Amino acid sequence: MTAHRDLKNLIRSRQAKTGESYTAARTHVMRERAARLGLPEEASLPSEIPAAPVRLEAVVLRLNQQSARVRILGEQDQVTFRSGDLELVVPGHVVTLVFERRWTWRGDSYGSGRIENPRIDVLSLGLVPLPLRGGELVDLRRIYEHYRRPDPYAPRWRKLTATPRASYEMDGVAWGAFPAAPNDSPVGDAADLAEAGDEDGARERLMEALLRDLRCIDAHAHLGNRIFAHQPEVALAHYEVGIRIGELSLPSGFDGVLVWGELYNRPFLRCLRGYGLCLWRMGRLAEAQRVFERVLSLNPNDNQGVRFCWQDVLRGRSWEEMAAQEEAEMEAPLHSPIDSH
């Protein structure tokens, strides 16, 4: 009992210094202990080394720097899988694990090897669709200010709001409001950490949210936002996973609205907008146009400014052209009326 208490104290001490999660701190402490005792780094226990690599399908639940927490399809227990093939993997992916080594340490399962074929297969995730609330008919023209000519969006707005439409709100889990921990706000914490400059801490909190529940759509959206500028292909995967999980809640042929004013709809709308921006940036303008039109259909009042992106891609304007113009406008000198005379 004393040894166990000492171990917990070491782990908590490391947590206090590094800000790591308990699991991450425990992994480092056990690794250091194994090194001091001259035991194998992975486990300090005999490992199961298969005669040939074993291939298993798994759901990715969260990512660390050099490992992924996964659940093998058909099993309940989670496995920490170490691999150097994580660059294109996101939580919610289904992947093929090529086990070169697998072991258990103090009741926890570990493995190492390669990760292949990351893909989106939302039905394999085994998720229960989040409930959709509401359904009352809403006259959007009565609630919102009208878009009028010469605004190019005005004709589409009139079409989208021509008749009352059923209005819904997604479940709070999509936003990170977990019923079992009502006072915990991992996505909000992540935003605060990012604003303070702690990007690693922000990522950790978002990953913790997804380990708790992959249906936290806002965590997918924020992870995509974090890397959009540098890795749009990976950001695209984050957004698409969030979209596909959100779509589990929508009936076939859904023609209702998910207005921005309902807080728990925002994660889904953020994922859709981010997905459209990635497609645009990657030169897939026709696909981006369809995504932007879907966002506008779901939220005709367009609190996200999607109509401007839609207008650009409708004209065939590339992402590079848009970025160059915005940069030129920012660098252009400002002249007052006095200066112009």
Structural features:
341 residues; alpha+beta; two-stranded antiparallel ribbon; 16% strand; disordered C terminus; single chain; five-stranded mixed beta barrel
Share in β-strands: 15-25%
- What class do helices, strands and sheet pairing give? alpha+beta
Share of helical residues: 40-55%
Unreliable segments (pLDDT under 50, ≥5 consecutive)? 37-50, 335-341
**How do the strands of the widest beta sheet line up side by side?**
1-2-3-5-4
Number of helices: 12
Q: Could you give the distance between the termini?
A: 85 Å
Q: Identify the overall geometry.
A: globular
Q: What Rg, in angstroms, do the CA atoms define?
A: 24 Å
Largest sheet: 5 strands, mixed, barrel
Order of helices and strands: HHEEEEEEHHEHHHHHHHH
Count of DSSP strands = 7
The overall average pLDDT, rounded, is: 88
Verbal overview:
The structure is a single chain. This protein has 341 residues and is an alpha+beta fold. It has helices spanning 2-18, 22-37, 140-143, 154-160, 186-195, 199-212, 217-227, 232-247, 266-281, 285-298, 306-314, 319-331; strands at residues 54-63, 67-72, 78-82, 94-105, 108-119, 133-138, 165-169. The chain has a five-stranded mixed β-barrel with strand order 1-2-3-5-4. A two-stranded antiparallel ribbon has the order 6-7. The protein is globular, with a radius of gyration of 24 Å. The protein starts with a helix and ends in a 10-residue tail after the last helix.
